[in-house]
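Notes, Module 5: Reading structure tokens.

Key idea: the token line is not a picture. It is a compressed description, and you learn to read it the same way you learned to read a sequence, by spotting repeated patterns. We will look at two proteins. The first is printed below with its tokens.
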Amino acid sequence: MTDQAAMDDWFCREVLPLEPALMRYIRRNWRVPEDVFDLTHDIYALALHGVRNGLPEHTSGYVFAIARNHLIQQARRSQIVSIEFMANLDGVGPPPDLSTTDRHIDARDELRRALAGLSILPPRCREVVQLRKVEGLTTRETAERLGVGVDAIEQQLTKGMRALTDFMLGGSGKIAWPARDKQKARRSE
């Protein structure tokens, strides 16, 4: 088992710098441009889950293999069955496995932690994350609703998801605003 501190360090040091290349890879291989950020964060979650048993030797190969497999899996899912069809199949299939209560409890704890992390985000950032991740709006729809540009939505979402990830991994969940830090330094001189 890899300890949490080593996983956090590995993620920040080796995975986050791959983000621009990973997003370019997803844009080239996925048909819906609005899904790029969601897919990127799904891949981060899968990568973090996978390193619980040990850190990989070649991080970029590991992350891009996860990305490739995740895109393939998402494409297969989108071709198999529509959600409306599944809604008509209520009650079909085996009953839920009640022996998985530990997983349910863990999921509820993670949800509570995510909500706590969401509540400490700045108001605009929190609103963007909620519209994109909770309500499922596209980047363009979110931008139109808030009356801002698509680039602003992408920046707010990236900062918000990074802060939320930091909080979920035991950090403070604070957003780093480099421009504000520079302005404060200038004022103090």
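Here is the second protein, with the sequence above and the tokens below, as before.
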Amino acid sequence: MIMGVGIDIVHIKRMERWLVNSKLLKRFFHPDEIEYVMSLGRRAAQSLAARFAAKEAYGKALGTGLANIKLAEITVINKNNGKPEIKLFGAAQEIFKNSGADKIHISLTHEREFALAMVVLEGT
């Protein structure tokens, strides 16, 4: 059963400015995300934008927003086949456990100026 759906869009140029601000990066992104994104060269901003959109979409799918969750506790990783996946830590993980959902589905995309993410929470 679908427990929640969230979608968000982020302007990639916004993330270009964030790439040179380590304080912002550390505040909003897990160290694994930062390391991965920085390895992408000129595609770093679009990847960062998609990941930020995923975090916002996740909060919308919860139905409560991101209250009491640090964005760095929501990590978007890529499996070996490239498929994105959300990993949760700390308060984000506890809130998810209490949400009634047990699966997180995520889709990311980007085109020219924008990156978009969609998150679906599924439960039994």
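Summary for the second protein:
- The longest helix spans residues 44-62.
- Strands lie at 2-11, 74-78, 84-88, 103-111, 114-122.
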